[in-house]
Amino acid sequence: MRRICSVYRSAKRDGMYLYVDKAEGLERVPEALMTRFGRAEHAMTLLIDEGRKLARADAAKVLHDITEHGFYLQLPPADEPVLNPREDR
Fold it and tell me: Sheet containing 2-10: which strands, arranged edge to edge?
């Protein structure tokens, strides 16, 4: 499967991106998600197929989620957790 995707970055949160089908745009993204996402700034347009290597997402998962839900949400990487906060005492 191949799809031309538009990728949008969140104006509210660094590292948060929405991948959508270019032809559909943001029309299938739920309103509640768009409220949390904030203003969507177009970052790029990509031709994605299942074998494409993406920096922080699995291409097959991106394509599946766009087909099933209308979008793929890439969250920023989580901060490294503190292993044992009591060690500093």
Answer: 40-49, 2-10, 17-21, 72-74
